[in-house]
Known about the structure:
The structure holds 2 protein chains of 2 kinds. Chain A is α+β, with helices and mostly antiparallel strands.
Amino acid sequence: MTALRLAWRQARGARRHFVVFFACVVLGVAALVSVGSFAAVLNRTLAREAKSLLGGDVELRSARPLPADVDGELSALVSRGATVAPVRELVGMARGADNGRTVLVELKAAAPAYPLYGRLATTPAAPLPVLLRDDGAVVQRELLDRLGLRVGDRLALGSVTLTVRGVVESEPDRSASLVTLGPRVFVAPETLERSGLVQFGSRVRYRTLVKLPPELAARELRENLARRISDPGVRVSSFDEAQPGLRRFFTQLTMYLGLVGLASLLVGGIGVASSVSAFVRRQQPTIAILKALGASSRTILTMFLVQTQVIGVAGSLVGAALGVALQPLLMAALAGFVPFTLEPRIDAVTVLRGVAMGTLTTLLCALWPLLDVREVRASLVLRREVDDAPPLARRRPWAAAAPLVAGLAALSLWQAGSLKVGGIFLGASVAAVVALWLVARGLVVLARRLPGAPSPAWRHGLGALRRPGGHSARVVVALGAGVMLLVAVALLEENLDAQIDHERRREAPSFFFIDIQPDQRDTFARLVREATGGTAPALTPVVRSRLAAIDGEPVTRAMVQARGGEARETTFYYTREYVLTWAAEPPVGNVITRGRWWDGTPGPPRVSVEDVMARQLGIDVGSRLTFDVQGVPIEAEVASLRKVDWQSLTTNFFVVFSPGALDGAPTTFVGTARTPAATEAALQSAVVSAFPNVTAIPVRDVLERVGLVLADIAVAIRVIALFTVATGLVVMAGALASTRYQRLYESVVLRTLGATRGAVARAFAVEYGCLGAAAGVGGTALAAVLAWVVLTFVLETPWRFEPLAMLAGVGLTVALSVAIGFLATFRLLGEKPLPVLRRE
Amino acid sequence: MVSVRALTMRLASGGRPLTILEGVSLDVERGDAVAVIGPSGSGKSTLLGLIAGLDAPTEGTITVGGVEITRLGEAALARFRRQTIGYVFQSYHLIPTLTAAENVAVPLELAGARGVAARTRALLEQVGLGERAHHYPVQLSGGEQQRVALARAVALDPPLLLADEPTGNLDSATGAAIIDLLFALNGERGSTLLLVTHDPALAERADRVVSLRDGRVVGDRRREPALTS
């Protein structure tokens, strides 16, 4: 009670100290709450829209028409009251019937019952079957823009000509992947039939959407169907597990954003600790008086703890409010790739969590410096005839460090929601802080060792760096942490952009042409040669197949479950459609890791398998794989394993057969061609006009789409990382302000000795510039390490040195810290010397 | 009331060890008013601080009210100061962020006393500052600040009142008024007073005068009873 009352009164004198403290907590909590709210809204939307996103209660998905036994199951369901809507999706080329322009589109043909959930919004608003009647098409506006068409114009698709009857405004279940290959085109099922696009070799996704009557439970039905459909190639999902890929992506994105937010709270913690320690130093006389009056250390400690906690809670509340207020901003930044509308909402749990984290961080970070209260001796009040005793070897409150570290660790784990990620974050944070602290120490040592600096500004500026109180370390650590995050994001972006660019320039073809039929091969080659001015396309034969057996054991759902469990990554390798090819020589760029490539001698069929696939399937050289090609089993022995660089934009294969082994199998060709950017559109139009069934995938366009999504993600991370930088700057301002009195005295003495105001300002500039340079160099170096780790181990992309981005990081940090330094101290320059000296 | 035995205090000054007090022994009777005089650097302030338990001596023992305070830990010392000692400093040592009334209230609140507001008001009126209760230290003159400090020192009616050069920062007229007040407050309460000063005139008002020089007791005389009457 006493402590509370004292705390309340005592706080009056501490406002200046607590501004920085308050701002740090506000920024940190705001970062956490804005990310948390975003994640909460995202999760709620994903859950609420789950049926729309899947398209039904249950979805069956396959790369081939559903087997007959599945049809039986579905008929049984319909008789029990279920609604079934088969949907086919594939990519194809749309061509303006009158102007010849072409665009890669994502086609969709759905049964009249579609959509079973959610709403397909079209302009004009009319039922889809009505709009699609008599070869109608409903398309995304993007297609009209790119083809220069309007509603009512004609559009060629394969061998049919359609009339555009409307525009799709929103489609409930179109969110399977973040990057789409092209605009959507809806056509009627019979139109698709006649287009000739669904033929051997084309990649069609067969989806069957099921809406269940209330008495049937989706999950139970999913399990029943999964048990009864033996073909593992048919994937059965229920709505409550819809879009696991998308969900996983968002879970990870919000987790990373949350960690960036936590970083800003931890940097804020440095600010809290630093302003509390400055505060305790300033309060030493008061503490000594209170002790002389009989207050125990415990009472005083409690008093200050109450004060700091009140500010911590208040800062957390304001921060939470700010975070909630900023939510629409973050959503706008991310709207580009969130495939549904999000409504900002206040999520109580997130707000409470943010406030709890802010309060806890305040407690942990304030406690350590507050323990110094115990070291303040009551005898300070004595008017001593001599200097005071030398400072006692300070009792380091290591016993308090354990709960402190444990508390911060718990916070990290709580935010990360995973032991592994939280642990990595914690380890990285500790490493970063230690590294930055060492940089700061290095700066101080350097400032001390440097021989007589040439000019007074440098001499005094460098001298100021070793000012007692250790403000250098705090500034460098706090600012450096922010710089690290921001520069790391910039470096990652630069690297990925450069990678995309590099691929584009290097051996990347301009186009992939798929589904070229054998009889089109020669004409296709000739046409491309003419259109590109002499460059022949590279044509690779491909045979589409499925894995049928491993070492004679048939691949069934039961077998997959027994061998791979439920891990999606593993299941993928058993059930995917394999595009096979054959070759006499190893593909360029592939590296044989085990076994040997075949020589020219004829022999039984052999295959070379990609190494990750081999690992996932648990096979090795000598294993026997059976592929089902249009119902015909082809068995081959694994002769070698290969490492494939999937990032190289060339035709890469999981499985390559020895020549002759696939003779007689139905074959199509994949063509690649390079052409200057200026002639790309012409080549695409020429090919699509001549071969309506061939799909041209424009690499530049796809890379640009990927780049846009990456840019959106980078914006989101940057928004949150900015909080960290802002907190770092506040910490810096606070640390500089805590040296205010000393600084004032020094500047006044200098001016009394004849230094101009400008000379003092220059000395300040040297000091702030050096601090900024240390934080910039340290932060940027750590950013490079962080970016390298992420690129190498997470994105598996080669690291490139980006000196410009790094130099910019250092330069901006120096500029910012000089600016903030002056903002925090410029008023000192205006003080008149005499009153200051008299006060001393 | 106070019993000091073989008290020695050494500090380091500029890295060199410096002896402040050397084997000081002293007994103070309950109810006595004792002045400790001596030149600057004679160790008198240190002696007072040690008796208040503000610091620990290098050697020797101090017993106050039957308690050997040189054996007490930090928390017990704080309690001892709260319950036994009233301290008046040369430079007042008011807490700058608290008003006059709040400063006086601090010891009452630390002791968990009841009716703090009323007692604070009464104390301030007693030192003649009833009107200035809500002023902050910077808004008070030196003399006024020392009055607040006096009120604070006697707030809990401590049995031992320690005053360290209470007039050292004041002009002589103000100083005299403070001394009158100090003796009046002490007289009313029947407490023991230990007063450090280098002003011989001031020392003459005490019952007993102890002289220190270079950390040793060099004189100890009781004032002639004849002079008091």
